[in-house]
């Protein structure tokens, strides 16, 4: 078992003990006694306890509070705040979807521009690279000096 704790004041510290001051009987003022007349003769009730003893006494009729108008379970302000929060979340969700759609559309346009640049660049590269160094086969045209006399062509 563990040793019991001992409470000692640390060395070099002075401990002050405060004692409560008793209430003098002259300071106690008794409450005034008010006589209350019952509405009628109260009924006497007897109760038999489990050990066989009988206890007899007056039955006390408790005062019933007046019925209060039924209040709604939740106040109108709380309903308005909740509906405002739901509306705000719906707007935020819509804005989130809208920004996601705009981002996806921008990415699609960017990819289409890159695809068009690659295709056009490839077409230009093919034209440049195949034009030099290769002889195309086709119709041979011999050009000779043509003579124009009196606005007539003599070939």
Description:
- The protein is α+β, with helices and mostly antiparallel strands and 155 residues long.
- It has a two-stranded antiparallel ribbon. A two-stranded antiparallel sheet has the order 3-4.
- A hairpin with a 5-residue loop joins strand 1 and strand 2.
- The radius of gyration is 55 Å and the shape is elongated.
Précis, in short:
The chain has 155 residues and is of the alpha+beta class. The protein has one helix spanning 76-131; strands at residues 44-48, 54-58, 147-149, 152-154.
Question: What are its keywords?
Answer:
alpha+beta; two-stranded antiparallel ribbon; two-stranded antiparallel sheet; elongated; 155 residues
Shape: elongated
Strand content: 5-15%
Summing up helix and strand content along with how strands pair, one would put the structural category as alpha+beta
Unreliable stretches: none
Q: Overall pLDDT, averaged?
A: 75
Write the layout of secondary structure elements.
Elements: E1 44-48, E2 54-58, H1 76-131, E3 147-149, E4 152-154
Antiparallel strand pairs: 1-2, 3-4
């Amino acid at each position: 078992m563990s040793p019991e704790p001992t409470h000692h004041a640390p060395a070099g510290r002075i401990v002050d003990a405060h004692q409560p001051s008793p209430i003098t009987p002259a300071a106690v003022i008794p409450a005034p006694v008010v006589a209350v007349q019952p509405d009628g003769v109260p009924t006497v009730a007897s109760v038999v306890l489990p050990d066989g003893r009988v206890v007899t006494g007056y039955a006390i009729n408790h005062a019933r509070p007046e019925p209060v108008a039924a209040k709604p379970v939740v106040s109108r302000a709380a309903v308005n705040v909740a509906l405002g929060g739901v509306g705000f979340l719906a707007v935020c969700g819509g804005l989130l979807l809208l920004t996601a759609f705009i981002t996806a559309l921008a990415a699609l346009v960017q990819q289409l521009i890159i695809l068009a640049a690659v295709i056009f660049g490839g077409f230009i590269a093919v034209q440049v690279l195949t034009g030099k160094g290769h002889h195309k086969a086709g119709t041979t045209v011999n050009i000779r000096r043509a003579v124009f006399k009196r606005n007539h062509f003599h070939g």
